[in-house]
Amino acid sequence: MTQAQSSALASSRRRLWAWRIGATLALASAVHLLAVWAVPRVIMGRVLSAAQPEKTTGVFLPPMTDASARRIVMPSPDLLYATCAFDVSTTPLRIRADPKSPRYWSIALYADNSDNFFVINDREAVGQPIDIVLIGPKAYAQRPKMPAGSKLIDSPSARGLLLMRVLVADYAAEKSVVEAARGSLSCEALR
Amino acid sequence: MTGKATSPRRIGWSTLAGLAGLVVLAATLGLGSAWLVLKRSDGLGARVGPWQANLLAGSADADLYTRARVAVGGLLALNRAETMYYVAATDSDGQPLRSRCSYRVSGLPPKARWWSLTAYAEDYFLFPNEQRRYSVNGLNAAINEKGAFALISGPSDPGVAGLPWLPTPGDRGLMFTLRVYNPDGALQASPASLEAPRIERLAGCA
Description:
heterodimer, A: Immunoglobulin-like, B: six-stranded antiparallel β-sheet
């Protein structure tokens, strides 16, 4: 092999390695960004799939949080929860509640990417019942008829989760009050 | 003829193997770096003492990384206007928290409607314990004459009168989460103004 041929071969090898390294880094960056983007959506998807709503109210009422609660990270042991997994792609959702707990409670709505796009607490409700109509990001075939007195909320995603929190100091002593508070929640398709 | 027919095929397999190796390496690098970034707990907000505030939890203003890190370590958090979250994974001397060690956590209650301090294992879930005691909060905390609260966490009951015990059995990573519900305006505007509870490791780490 002549010196010129040897030099050309070395140059060709350098270009090949540069291409390999560049392609690996570009692909690794794409995988990295895709993974970071997908994580909240995959985790929320698992949470939404696991929700087991009660047939008449559409609400899931998990037991008081203890160490066996391993579905959602960092569960609060001071709160009693109620959840509604919603899908407002074809019909709006009517959310109603009338909690009568003297302590903190809130109703929060989460998009399918985990963003908290709405929350109301007991102070903001000032003793009035909650009546919300949640609509999806796309227009419906038929314009929904708004019930009188309902508040309209836009959901940024078709699927998502409602999470109600009721503060509990002593569950055994307060059971009737806090269970009635979360039991007042209903999530029903508005047709 | 045979040589001409087999030579390109050999090159093809070799190229394919090289590409497969490249894809596997890229996937490993991409997923590994994503995992490392998402498991980090710093950089999400103000730091005060050993406590790291997570100010964008649940917010639609959260960026790609914040949203993913919150999903891993604090899914379904409320936004900052409703609740502020402070997480400590070290004691006040900067040493990593371990469940086999006992700690005294003390300070002034945060200026808020109510608060709670919960012990979590490194997997972000509660410590199983016979007492079914997982947190101390503004409704059940022991407040002294100076208006301060204190508690002791550890694998066994220290038996200190007047101080609640948070059981943390086993030898695992440990973190405390301080939830501040309906924080007052000044704290909301300046999360670093929290009078951070001290976390002191007690002698005799088992």
